[in-house]
Amino acid sequence: MNATLAQSSWKVAKIMGIPIRVHFSWFIVFGLITWSLSTRYFPKAAPDLPAATYWIKSVLAALLLFASVAFHELSHSYIAKKYRVSVTGITLFIFGGVAQMKGEPPHPRAEFRIAIAGPLSSFLLSGLFFLVSENTSGGSRALFSYLMRVNLILGAFNLIPGFPMDGGRILRAALWSRTKDFFYATQKASIFGQRIALFFLLFGLFSIFSGSSGGLWLLLIGWFLYMAAQSSQQQSTLQEALLTIKVKNVMATDIVTIDSSIPLEEAVDKYFLRYGYGGFPVTDNGKFLGMITLKEIKNVSRTDWREVKVSDILIPHDNKWEMTPDSDVMKALELMIKEDKGRLVVMKNEKIVGLITRNGIARYLQIMGK
């Protein structure tokens, strides 16, 4: 789900080295909030102002609201980075915001602190906006009163114990601390999250049939939470299954290597098209140099394939991309995700004995029925 959000988003800023992106769905809710505030909220809260002022303050309120959401996610990210959990970006979308983190917290205490940082930041902003509103009047007071209330709601809503919301992560931290079993805690918190989502769905349906406003919004939130909780449960089950599997059980041993001296045209015709693999190890007189994948080839104009050699565009090998036959598959998968690699070499006695790929792991699990 995080990957899908990132693919349809635009980078608007970079804070603490973390890219801030805006998903296209953000513009929908931005427009709805602006319209609602300018036609309903501000005319009632400050009735003596010109219509143009309502629209200006509504746009400002919507921007500050999403700045508040970004601050909420940055608070998560700041604590996560303290525990060496990589944060690849923050995306603002129709339901608020999400921080894309690679890896899991190292222990329950870290999970709790990362999770609670978001709601606490929202409560802090709520307090600050309250102080500002108490020292202003008219349209400005209405603006900051709105931001005070919405941040208070944002902090409280995220404390609902429905995984993967902040409250659900706090629940997982508690279960993890009590049972010492991360996967059990994740699965239980995810199941509870699905139940919370079902409550939102049922309450949303009830609201629609009873004529109450906000029913459709509750349905959308419930659907999103249910899908996110279900995805987290499936991911946890997959991770648990991989813990008992070694790289030697999954790796491909029929290795095909490409000589570094051949041109790209020959590499494509005789290797990529013939074998259908997405990448190959590159060697020079039997010495392993690195990898070449379709990604590197696509970056070279087809008219240059005869002149450009494999050695010109290969990715030089780094020891951190190596696995041993007795390494855990889960460790290999985490490394591939962290380094954005589709395959890793398996080394033994300084020689390549196999390749492990994401597709290979998926096929193994499918065959074994896991």
Task: Describe the 3D structure.
With 370 residues, the chain is of the alpha/beta class. It has 2 domains: 2-242, no CATH class; 247-368, CBS-domain (Roll), CATH 3.10.580. 61% of the residues lie in helices and 16% in strands. The protein has 14 helices and 11 strands. The protein is elongated, with a radius of gyration of 26 Å.
Features:
alpha/beta, 14 helices, CBS-domain, four-stranded mixed sheet
Architecture blueprint of SSEs:
Elements: H1 2-7, E1 9-15, E2 18-23, H2 24-45, H3 51-82, E3 86-93, E4 96-102, H4 108-134, H5 138-158, H6 166-179, H7 182-209, H8 215-242, H9 247-250, E5 258-259, H10 264-275, E6 279-284, E7 287-293, H11 294-298, H12 310-313, E8 315-316, E9 322-323, H13 329-339, E10 343-348, E11 351-357, H14 358-368
Parallel strand pairs: 2-3, 5-6, 9-10
Antiparallel strand pairs: 1-2, 3-4, 6-7, 7-8, 10-11
Helix pairs in contact: 2-3, 3-4, 3-5, 4-5, 4-6, 6-7, 7-8
Short account of what is shown:
The chain crosses the membrane at residues 20-42, 54-71, 83-100, 112-131, 196-226. The chain is an alpha/beta fold and 370 residues long.
